[in-house]
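Following up on my earlier message about zinc ion. Here are the inputs again, as you asked, copied directly from the submission form:
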Amino acid sequence: MVKQGKCKFCSQIGMIEAADEMTQEEIDKEVTLQCKCPEAQAFATKEYNRTSAAAFIKDAFKNDEYMKDYMTHTLDAVMNEGADKVQVVQKRLLDSKTIETKVYTMTLNNEGTLIINMKQSYSSKEKF
Ligand SMILES: [Zn+2]
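Thanks, got it. Here's what our run produced:
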């Protein structure tokens, strides 16, 4: 069904093919994503980056449910709450003396590009 929504930045009205269960808010979001005003274009880029990053996280942490959830929440914090840099540190004991450390850094730059950096290191200690 064709429904009417409006861009949440410039209020321009647009029509989209929408499923019955879509709320007005979802329709407005779709119309905004298709609008050509600069604010809407910036919003569309950010949404695209968020979707791509969420898909990357889902795949990269497919074997680790806890980290997948944690990184997804971290992504939301970076994208929604304006935290421009968040660091997640994961430590794991590999054997009785070796610790694996993974540091994930999510950075959102001024152009709206999200960068996820991963640094992995090992440390061990000997006791005598
Ligand atoms: Zn607009």
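One observation from looking it over: The helical segments are 24-34, 38-60, 65-80. Hope that helps, and feel free to reply on this thread.
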